[in-house]
Each structure stands twice: as structure tokens, then as C-alpha cells.
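Follow-up to my post from last week.
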Amino acid sequence: MQKLHPYKIVSAGRLCLLILITIAGCKKYLQTDPPIDSIPGSAVFQDDKTAAAALSAVYAQLYHDADFDGYSGIGFFMGLYGDELSNQSPIDWNIALYTDALGSSVFHITQYWTDYYSLLYSLNRAIEALKPATRLDHRDQWLGEALFTRALLYFYLTNIYGDLPLALSSDYRTNNTLARSPQSDIYKQIISDLLQAQSLLDNRYQDANGQTTTDKARPNRAAATALLARVFLYTQDWTNAESQAGTLIADSTDYHLTALSQVFLLNSPEIIWGLEPTQSWFGIVRDARTYQIPPGQTPAQASVAATLSDSLVQAFEPGDARSSVWVGIDTVLSSGNTPQTLYFYASKYKAAGTYTTPVEMVVLFRLAEQYLIRAEARFQLGNTTGAFADLNLIRTRAGLPPSTSTSSDIAAAILHERRVELFTEEAHRFFDLRRTGNLDAVMNPLAPLKGGSWSPYKAWWPIPPTDIGIDPNLAQTPGYP
Amino acid sequence: MKRITIFLLMLGLLPPVTGQSQQLTLSLRNVPLQRVFDEIKKLTGYSFIYTREQLAKTTPVTIVIKNASIQEVLDRCLAGQGLTYSIQNRIIILKAFNPPRSNIDDTTHTRTEAHEAIRVLVIDQNSRPLAGASFILRRPDHSAIASGITDANGKFRIPIGMKDSYRLELSFIGFDSQTREIAVKDRHQSIVVQLERSAGTLDIVQTTAYSRTTMRFNTGDISTIDAGEIAHSPASNLLQSLQGRVAGLFVTETTGKPNGGFTAQVRGLNTLSGGPLPSLGFTEEAGQPIFIVDGVEFPANSTLPLAGLPNYSQAQFGGNGLNYLDPSIIESVNVLKGADATAIYGSRGAFGVVLITTKKAKPGEPSVTIGAVQGVATKGTTPRLLGLRQYLEFRHNALDNAGSPPGPLDADLNGAWDTTRSTDWTNFLLGAHAPVTKGNATWSAGGGNNNILLGAFYSSIGDIERSGGAVRQGGLSLSLSTAINNRKLTLAFSGNWFSNHDNTLPVDLAGQGETSQAPDAPYPYLPDGKLNWANAANAAAVRNAIHTTNTDNIVANATITWMPLPGLTVTASGAYNLISSKQFLAEPNSFFDPAIFTTALLFSSIDNYRIRTISTDPRVQYTRNWGKSHVEFIAGGSLRDRLTQVDYINGTGFASAALLRDPHLAGNPTTVESYAPNKYIGAFAVINYRWADKYILNLNGRRDGSSVFGSGRQFGNFGSIAAAWILSAEPWFACFNPVVDFLKLKLSYGLVGASSIPPYLAIDTYVPGFSGYGGPGLIPQNLPNPGLHWETDRNFETGISLSFFKGRVNIDALYYINKASDQLTRVPLASITGFTAVDANAPVTLRSYGAEFSVVINPIRNKDFSWTTKLNGTIPRTKLLSYPGLASLIENYNYKIGQPVTGFRLYNYAGVDPATGYYNFYNAAGQRGEYTPFLSPTQLDPRTDRTAFVDGAPKWYGGIVNTLAYKNFTLDFLVTVTNRMARSYEGSQSYPPGFLSINIPVDVAAARWMKPGDRTSIPLAVQNGRSFFDQYNFLYSAGAFVNAAYARLQNISLGYRLPAPLVHKAHLAEMSVYIAGQNLVTFTGYKDVDPETLMVNRISPLKLYTGGLNVRF
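User reply:
Got it. Predicted complex:
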């Protein structure tokens, strides 16, 4: 056999090396420069400015999508669906909502689902990227904001649709086949996110540069605490609800109750956190244009889709300042056979013009709610005195005498107070009825009066059928076809 | 019977350039010369040309030699045999040794000698010189006294000293042999011999990716079009010249606007890459073949980023890269189809390959060729619309039917407009004719090792629209080649530069719906020539828009070929293309109604784009014969780097129109920047094996990477296997020989891919959006899919090639099946992922299949008259086999399992109700009704009631070319035929007949429903909401589609070659004149719309009449 010449061995080695270099070179060659008209996701979260911008877009989009205020806000929708609003619109989806006849094909019913899951992608992507991004100066703030906002969206989603697919990563392959997790799991995740957010966020408000500001546009630790208190209330963890709400109430330098007319003004001392209007919608809270009726016009003439329901109007005790400051009255004089009619409308938000600097803010968390949370928690924990103290603070602010309720019907008193304090705000009323077990009792007699009918399954809304068609593990909300 | 047989040994694949210094070692004793030649052939791959007679008189030789050159061997064994030789391009030609007159190929004649020789020029029937034709000069006693081949200019000289008449025999592959008597009186003259292309097409050279083959040995599907055929068409875009000439290639001219768009489709659409079909159009950008010009990928298969005026659709419809390449520089076009032909391009060839080769420098005498063309373009298909009187009647009828008097919107009837005067809007907007001028001059020179070709081109194409302007294009082309080191190393360079200046308005005036406005609409000009703004809108105001586009195109290629050993060729080539353009658009004061004009309305924009491509294909090729085996092995790599950049800036609101040239000075300038890199790298190996010229096996394998895919998924493996069996080469086939000369069966199977997606889909990107909260926000733009990978295309093909009656009838037919999967498309997702779709390899399976044939017949061929007919036809079919999640695909109603992806799901049309005159439809349950949207109690649901299906792709198409030559006259004409379904005129209208002030064609108006009982397909003329909403259903019903089959006289050209004596007297080498036409006559039942573009309100392909002159010095 021929002996292999050493030169040939060297040469073979060189050839192999050459091939390896070539293969490595090919891979390297195929790497392209990053795009110029967009930023790769991997780069966005390696810089404080861009990381902040990615989260800013989430808040701006939450406002822009109008899921929390105006005609398509959760307050309006659930107000119509429940017992707060009276429909004045001939539009089919308003009628469907009002008559509690939701079909999953009604796009508006599923808008929260698609809007929020779209934002959850952004948030999951941000959380994944921010967790290891320790080189950022304000990484804790961005991560805390993202965790808080994810919890916020899941809170509303689970209170609209019940059990949910729990998407916690940005991987569409995993998410596209998720099944619905029980609501208890959703709450567990929400609480876990919020506890993390609490530890990451600062007490003070920070702006997009990570600098302290008085502007409440971005969530801070208090926002996480406020949501946590609410979640503990919803999950009947009374001790924690009391302590979380208590923390906020104790922080009297930052937060205190203010005059009724001042509550919703931008950065009022009562506001813990909300959405700050951007110029995409005239810088307003759209409730201002949604509910207000110019004097003398019928709702139809003013293109107003809903007025306050009779039961809500009647719920105000005589002398309740809220019924004069937060409720508007439109008197339409009699004409022909039509007698004089009074229309009551929500008037919490009043700035309906066009603003470069917003006057009001879409309030998602305010101190009054925290008092009511603590009142309820204290009552459940047996601290009736404490409960009445909190409740009466809210009543006093509304110009009402202390509650005359007895300790046996204090639960009803708190529910009533929540109704008149938080009406048309972010579906508090509907969620309260449901979590306190009063929903069917209220809706069964009311639905026929609204022209529809009620069934217990309607407590939760249907989800988009296209998603069910694509995700094999996803089921429709029980009760819906 | 031929008394002389010329052996042309080894008809192998000729590498482009070869060397001669090969070292031979021979040891032969007392063998005939032929044996020596066989040995040399075996060892070097060189061929020999000699006659039996030449060898008959030779004596056996003994030769024992080591490491000698071919020349040494030949010198030794031919010594004393009365023979000498010359070597031309790897062919050794034996000649009688006739000193001192033997060096007939020596181009260094002295002036005296040159005058003593008879110069012979050999040309083909198109008067193009034939290089490499063989000749033998014989004495009257038939003994050969000289032989050789023509040089690159088709010339040779017959040595001096002739005493009496001789016979000259000429032959060339692919041409019929010819014999010419030459008398002494012919001395000092030039003799032109014209060879006729032989009926057989088998030996036409075809270019594949990196080598060449012939139709005889080709295992795949390649169609070849040469410069001669291209020259028959006066078109200014090469694609137009290819229309109807290539089986399996379907070319559509998108618009008749100069510098306009084209689409080309090889076989059927077999990809979803382009996304769902647009609902109303037909143009489909996806799945177009790649174009390679001189080795560089050329952007002719996608639209160019051209800009348009705001609110006007871009008239060139994206244009086409080949608009910037003068067709007269093109030497040949090879269209590669099917896996075997295209696997060598790997992924890029999945949708076919169009290889374009420009004219190159070749050895030969200096010559100058000049061509000039002058012509005129006229309007193509335009609908004949109602005249004023008929129009008014028609509109009154529409209002009467609605039961309403003319309202404020009915300006044509309510007295607002003067109903006594009318305008022919088609003529007013689209004009009548536009001039076309072209010229080119080519100089070529070179001898032996250094060759040069220099060309200059100019063309000017006027715009038919009455907005003025023209497309002017000038160019230069340069080709150089040089060989050094005894031709072991050759260097070639070619460069083509074109500069295109377009100041035509980028607005399709037919596309604004203004051609169909009421005839009594106010005339856009006042008697004093100013614009008439009485109507608030003015159809002529847009002519005042300012527009210029300057586009430059560079195609350059440099190739180095090195032949270190016999049969071994190493080639390195680099090619470069740059198309760059600057487009300026502006709306000055005169664009606007003075009544509303403020400087805030002034608009201008600048669009700069740049498409730069670099390609390189280094490769090694080794060719060898072992006994009856012929093996060719090629291995190499390829790299392609394309970068598309666009900088677009526009703005409105200028202090003054004087500032329009700089859009940055606008009140609110906005810019769009885009940057799309696309890199591609691959390595390949090819083995071509041929045994006894009977059995052929081709193996292709390659590994390709593309930058559009994510890390780890960039590479894909592709390959093909192909076999052919030439039955006619089998001994037992002899019994068929009198009829069938050639029969080949071929079979191929291959795997190719596709990657026609934009860059950056593998990563997630954020774009600015949703401002507030401290500056612009960043929102995720897409779901990243790092798993994106190549599409998979499995292609099976079988074919047969036949030649009858000594090549008079040639038939090529094949059948293909292509199964495409892993389709790169938008896959629907549940919205819980945050998105409703992701760019992914959908598990969609598509099948395209079909048959192609081409036939070449030469019914008549004699000295004065010849007739050739070329026929090709294609029947393409596609079928969507599976599409998981199709039902959830919200944005598209058109895909249907088992149906082509080029089709539309439509409502079942029930015709016009004879009782009411309104459209009727059937719902899914088969119930007939009007189903007027919003108005009827029951409605049609686009998801469930679209049960009819109409395919928009051609069912079959083809072309017939006839070439007739009589003496010096040549007539060539091409008829193309296409059969397809398309939207009718009415099926393309947003408004029903009689609505608003819209004119309609005479035939549509005449066919409309008039009274109860009328059975017709056109509804009543009526202006009401009911008819308006009904029209919407109609547009999405099968009733909107009609058969759009057509036959078109695509090209015709009549040429006359001036008689040689006359030409020579004028000291010219050659001169011919011709007239040619393009798109002259169309036969179709499809009314009012051009059956090629299928678009109402678009400038149809123009008719072109030209006359030209070609002179060669």
C-alpha cells in the first residue's frame, strides 16, 4: 500500500480547514445589517429610551383603542349589558349588548380579547427581554411597568371572559394552541406579576426617561398595590385586600380624597393611576363626549347611545352630591304627544373639547375605591367599625350623613356605595354584582325589562370563533354556541 | 448521394475557450493516420475535420513521442503526407499541403495578397455572418485543394493562383450544405454564400446555467430564442419580443405606457408567496422566473419602487427592469423550465430561469453595423363609447327607470352642462399616435487573441397620452476579450450602460375614469386656451404636473477562464448590475383650480431608488471521454448579493412653486426610507454522463443559503436527476430511419426551493407608532418566525423529442407535475398570539401540472423559397391540494381546495331578471333572488354563498411563427393565442349602467334590458340605490366573467436584403431594409377591453408600425 506522504496529510488538513472556514464564512456572509426603518426586537430592550418607548406605545394604544372609555369602553359596554345604562341607540351591537343577546360574531364583544392579547404579546415580549437586561439604568421600572400592565390586562380579560388562555411568552407556537386556564390560575399569575411589580416599581411616578415626575401617566408601585388590593378583594383574600388598600390609604401625602368636581382631573390627588389621553383623540376622556347631552336635545338628536338607567338614578340617596356633580340632567320639553322627558347622563368627565394638554385622565384606580375595598375587607374580617369608618368617609365626601346600616346589612351598604360612587367606571358595578353573587338576582327581573332575557352563563362573554377555529384546544365560553 | 463525407468527430460540448498546449505522450507503430487522430482526440478532446479522400492517399505512421504538444505530434505524423492542418477552437482541420498557398486562415496577408484572393462571406438566411462554417475547395477532378472554417465574421479567403473553375463546398451544423461553382472571373471579388438553416433544430446550442448543450443531448426543458427572432419584433422591452415564442412562458404587458410593467410566468403559478389574489386584479407578482443577464440576476421579475402623483395610480404599474436594456444588444435568450434545467439555480430557479446573453466580442475582421428604425405607435384596444345623442337618450332612460328627475348630481342632464356640444374623451386624453425612433451602431474588431465590440444605442418613444413627453434612452456597450499564455488564460469583459430619461406623465389618463365621462361634460379648455374649471375638476389639469425620471442601468461582467490541463477549465466570473433612478414629481400652481388654490396645496416628491446586485460564480469544469463515455463534471459556488434602497421624500405646502424642486422645503415633508438586503450563497456539483451518444444521465446537487431566513434555517439542499435515451441511435431503430430521424425520451425529477419573501421576517421588528407618554412609542411590527425556511418544490417531468423526414418536422412535447409545499405565506393564527397571522411555511400543498409542446416544420425548402413554421402551446393547470386552516383565512374568500389558486370564488349568477331588469343570483341553497345588499330581506354571505368558481389563469396559450423567405425577401409573422376567463367590461365597473354621468360602450348599452320580457345579460339602465348595491354582488358573481380568448398578430416583419453586387458597389458589406409591426390585429369575442391586460381604464398595449434599415460596412 502506498504510504501517505506527510505533505498530503498537511494538505488534507488544510483543505478541511478551508472547507470549515468557507462554511463559517457562508453563514457569516448571510448575516445582513439590521433594518433601517425599524428596530430589531433584540435591540429595543437594550436601551432605556427604546425600552420605555415600547411600553409607552402600550399605554398610548390602550388609550387609542378606547377600551376603557367612550362608546367602546368597558364601562359603557358593561353598563348597557348590566343595570347602569339605558340604551338609546338603534345600532345592532348596542341592542345586542343591551338585551344581553351576545353572539360571538359581534365584533365589539370580542374587541377586548383581540386588543388585549395583542398588547399582551408586546408585554410578554418586553418581560422576556427585560428580565435579563440588567445593563439598563431603569430596567426595574420598565420590567415593573410591564408586569403591572400584563396583570391589568389579564384582570379585565378574566372579568370579561372568565377562564382564559394564559399566554406568558411571546412564542406564537405555544400560544396558538393554548387551552383556557381556570380563572383561579389567572388570578395566581396576576398576583405574582403584581407582587413582582411592587418590588420593582418606585413609590414615585417616573417618566419615560426614568425621572421622577408628578405626571401619573406611567404606573408606579401604588398602581400595582391598588390593583393588588382589588384582586385580593375579588379573590376574597380579605387580609391582603385590607393591607394593600391600607398601604395606599396610609400614604396620605401622595393620595387623599378631593372634592367631587376635582376627582377626575389630570393628576388629582385621588387618582392612583389612569390612562392619560393623547392627541390621537383630541386629548380627551371620551366619556365626556359619549354621555353628555346638550340641553333640550333628545339622545337621538345628540347621537348619544345610552343614558343612565332608572334604577341607577333612583339609587342615589337624596342629598347625594354625586347625583348633582357626576350626573347630568337633560330636560326635553313636551312636543305633541310626547310629554316632557328627563334624561340622566353620566357626567364624571366634562372636558369635551380639543386639548393639546389633557384636562382629565381615564381613571382606572382612585383612592375612593381603595376605601371601599378596605371597608369590605374589614367587614369580612369582622372589623365592622373599621368598615363603617371607611364607608362613611366616602359618604361624607358626597355630602351624606354616616351610614345608618346595621352590621347585618353592611355588605349591601358597601355594594350600594360602590354602585353610586363607581358608576360607569370600568365595569365596577357588573363585576361587583357577579363577585358578590348578586348578578342573577339583579339580571333575571331586569333583562325582560330591557327587551331580552338572562341566563347565568351570560355572566361571561363569548370569545372570537376564528380563534376557536384555529386553536384546537380553545373552547367557547360555556353556554355559547 | 454525397460523394464526400465530412466526419465531425466528437460533437461534444464546446467549452467557451480552449487552449492548445497540451502535452501528449504517444507510442504507435505502423498505424493508419486515423488511429493517431483517434488517440489525440481521446487524450485531448480535440476534434478533427478531414475527408476520407484526404486520408486515402496517406501512409501508415509510426510515432513514439513523450510530452509533446499537439502541434509537434501533428507535424511529425503529417510530414510527407501532403497534408497540413490548422487548429480552430479545439477543432483540427486537415488540409492539402499546397505551399505557399496553404495559410488561408492567416489574417496577416499583405495588401497585394489580399487583392489576389477571393473573399468569401458565409451568411445565414437573416444575412448574419456564420462563424465556424466548414468549407472545402475542390478542383474539377474533385481533389481537394483547400479546406478550413470561416472566421468569426463568417469570412475566409481562397488563396491566389487559380487557373480555372473550382467547386466550393460549404457546410455548417444546423444548416444545409451548399455547393458553389467558382470561376476564374470571380477573382478579385467577394462572394457571398447564403446557407439556409436546416430543418433540423437538434443541434442548436442551448445555454444552461454554467455550460452549454444542444437540443439533441438536453435532458431538461430549455427553449432558445436567438437575436434573429428578437430582431423581428420592434418592441422595446425584450419580454414583449418573447411573447408567444416560448412554450411554457406567459408574458403579460401590464400597460401600453412606455417604461411600463410586465409580468412573466413560467408554467402555472405554483406558489402562494404572493399572498391571496387581489380581489379585482389579475396581476400576480409572485412566482415569476429569475432573469439573469450576463451572469447577474436582473430585477425584471418584480416591480420597481416607482412613485406616482397623490390620488393617481402609478401609470407604469411598477415598470420593469428590462425597459432599461435595449433588445438589440441581446445575442440569445434561453428559458429554463423544470427541475433538471433549473436545479442548477437551486432555490432561485423554482419559478423558471430566463438567461439573457448580450452580444460579445469575437475574432473577425473589423466591421461596423448600423441600424435605424422609425415608426409610430397607435392606440390599442379602447372601448367604443356612446355618442352624445345616444348617451343622452341612455341617461334619460336611466332616470326615467328610477322615476326621478335629474338631480343636482346629474350635471349632464340638469342643464348645468351644454348638451349640444360633445367631446371624444378617449381621443382627448389618450391621443392618436406617438413617434418611435431607434438607432444603433456596433463596431467590432479583433484578430486572434484580442477582440473588441463597441455598441451605441439610442431610442425615443413618445407617450401616446396627450400629456406630452417621451422616453429617451441612450446606451453604450463594450465587450472585450483577450487570451494570453497560448490561450491557456482568457479574460473577457462586457459592460452595458443605459441611461433612460422619462418625462412622460406617470398618470394613466385612461385610468382616471375620465375617458368614460359624459360626452357633454365641459371641455377642459376655454377658447383662450386656459383651463376650464367650470366643473370643479379638470381632466387636463394633471397635464400641468411636472415629472421627470432619470434611470441608469449598468450591467457588467468580467470572466477569467484558465485551462491548466486538457479538459479542465477553471472559471471565475463576477457580474454587477445597478439600476438607480431619481424621480421628481410636482403639482405646481397650474395643477389646481385657481378658485381654491393656495400655496398650501403645492406638492412635490423625490423618489430615489437603487437596486444593486453582485453575482459571482466561480467553478471548475472537467470534460473527458473514456471509450464511448463522455463525462462532464462541474463544481462551483455562487453568490448573489442584492440591495434595494429607496429614499422617498414628499411634502405639501410650499412658500412658492419656485421651491418645488426641493421637497424638504415643504411645510410638512415626510420621508420613507427602505433598505432591503437579500443575500444568497450556494455550492453545487453537476455530473453529465453520456454513453455512446445514446444514454444520458444528469445529476445536479446543490446547497443554498439565503439571508431572508433565520439563523440555522438558511440553508437548503436541492438537486435533480435526469435521464434521456436517444432511441434513434440504437441499431434496431434503423428500420424507422426513412421517416423518423431522431427520437429521444427524457425523464427528470428534482427538488427546488423558493425564497421569495422580504428580508427581516425571521426577526421581530419594532416601528414607531402610538405617540404620547414621552415621545413616539415603538410597536412590534410582526411576529418573528426564525423557523422560516425554503419552500419545497418537487418537479417531475417527462418528454419526447422527435424529428421526422430529415429534420423537416421536429416535435418536442413534455408533461410536468410540480408539487409545491412548505409555502411561504401568511398563516392564520388565533388572536391570543397577539397577531392574526404569521409569515410561515404553511403546510399548504399545491400541484401544478401541464403539457407543453413545440413543433418546427419546414414544409418548403429550396434555393429561392423556404418556409418555416414554429408552433408552441402550453396547457398549464394548478390545483390547491390542501390548506389547513383555510376556513379561518378571513382576508381571502378565493382559495378553494381542488381548484387553482388563480381563481375566484363567486356568487352563482342567475342572469338579469326578465321581469325586472335587475341582476339575480342563486344563494348556496339554490334559491334565486336579487339579494340586494342592505335592501333585500335576505342577503348573500361571502363566506357561504360564493359557490361558483372561475379560474383567471390562462387555460391554454401558444404561438405560431411563420418565416417565409423568397430570394431576398423575408416575411416573418407571429400569431399568439390565449384562452382564459376574465372580467367583462360590465364586470369591472363599480357603477351599474346609467349611474351618474358615466358613459358606457355602445354594445353594452344596446344589449341592456329595456322592457319586461327582455332576456339579456345587461341590466336596465337605472340610477338608484338598488342598482348601485346590486352591482356589488354582480362584481363578485360568475356573471362578471366571460371568455376572453383571443388570437393576436403579435409581430409581422417584411425584410428585403439588397442584392450583393449593388451593396458591394456602394462599398458596403450588407444592407437590408424592413418594415415591422407589433400587436396589429386582434381576433376576440372579448369586447371593449384589451384581452392581454384585461383591465378597463388602462392604456392598452399599443400598436406599433415601424420601418428600418440595417447596414454593415
